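User: Hi! I have a protein structure encoded as tokens and I'd like to know what sequence might fold into it. I'm fairly new to this, so please keep things simple.
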């Protein structure tokens, strides 16, 4: 699983609050177990900052944290979750770029190249959006840049027709409760606030939309320079994390759901027939003919088995 979001979308806070809230099993037995010492220490460091009424520093450009958990699911199922936390500016460099040869310009050893490859290899990608970048952004050019960065990130990650799944996560949604009520739900809100993203990825229902608030309660506190600003309140609450983890769980279960035995047998039989035909014709042409016919036969058998 990969986490994608521009600067200020709350990647660091959401990741660590989610991990901390689910460090013990819930009523369904679902919990997140740190997969290595660095992940545990990373989460505890951020959590200590939040509970001391401070915000953790944003991830610096070029900085990259690879985090790993074991997701424990009901019935003893387990899944490794690999999350990557990078600066939002780096996400913009990857995806908000009109340069058509961007892939060729990235060195294979470049950290951004590895990040892009990681996103494309992930089974599940969480796209984080702070509504402030759309609903609260008064500069039309900046708002357009925000939507372009996220839309083309989604385009590239979901473009290859793979089984990769995506979830759009709207962060800090407690600040937009009144606006959400006026719009009548997340679908209407996203259609109005980010029409290009909505049309390309949300209206079909392929990408579900969820709202979360990792830190709902804040208090006003004077900063070092005397300027008042909002910081996490003691014993702050969170909202939407149960739904998010449940969506991840359901998405994971859909990915690992085994094919129908009868359908799988049909594909095996089709492959065997195709292989025989390819052998009869011989050469690359024969292999292509055999693969095509075998796939058609296997698909027909699999379709019939599902009825």
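Assistant: Happy to help. Inverse folding works backwards from shape to sequence: for each of the 307 positions I chose a residue that suits the local structure. Here it is:
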């Amino acid at each position: 699983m990969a986490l994608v979001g521009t600067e200020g979308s709350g990647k660091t806070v959401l990741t660590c609050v989610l991990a901390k809230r689910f460090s013990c099993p819930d009523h369904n037995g679902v919990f997140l177990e740190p997969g290595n010492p660095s992940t545990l220490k990373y989460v505890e460091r951020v959590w200590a900052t939040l509970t001391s009424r401070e915000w953790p520093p944003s991830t610096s450009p070029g900085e990259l944290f690879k985090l790993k958990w074991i997701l424990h699911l009901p019935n003893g199922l387990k899944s490794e979750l690999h999350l990557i936390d990078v600066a939002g500016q780096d996400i913009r460099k990857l995806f908000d770029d009109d340069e058509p040869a961007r892939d060729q310009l990235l060195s294979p050893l470049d950290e951004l190249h590895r990040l892009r490859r990681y996103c494309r290899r992930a089974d599940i990608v969480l796209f984080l959006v702070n509504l402030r970048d759309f609903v609260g952004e008064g500069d039309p050019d900046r708002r357009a840049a925000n939507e372009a960065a996220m839309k083309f990130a989604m385009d590239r990650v979901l473009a290859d027709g793979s089984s990769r799944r995506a979830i759009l996560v709207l962060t800090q949604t407690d600040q937009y409760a009144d606006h959400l009520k006026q719009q009548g739900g997340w679908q209407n809100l996203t259609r109005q606030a980010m029409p290009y993203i909505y049309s390309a990825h949300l209206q079909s229902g392929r990408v579900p939309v969820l709202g979360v608030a990792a830190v709902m309660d804040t208090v006003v506190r004077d900063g070092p320079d005397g300027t008042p600003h909002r910081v996490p309140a003691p014993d702050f609450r969170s909202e939407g994390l149960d739904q998010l983890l449940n969506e991840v769980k359901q998405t994971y279960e859909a990915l690992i759901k085994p094919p129908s035995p009868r359908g799988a047998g049909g594909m095996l039989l089709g492959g065997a027939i195709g292989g025989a035909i390819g052998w009869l014709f011989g050469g690359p042409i024969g292999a292509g003919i055999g693969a095509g016919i075998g796939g058609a036969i296997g698909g027909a058998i699999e379709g019939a088995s599902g009825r």
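A useful reference point when you look it over: The chain has two domains: 2-256, 261-305. Feel free to ask if any position seems puzzling.
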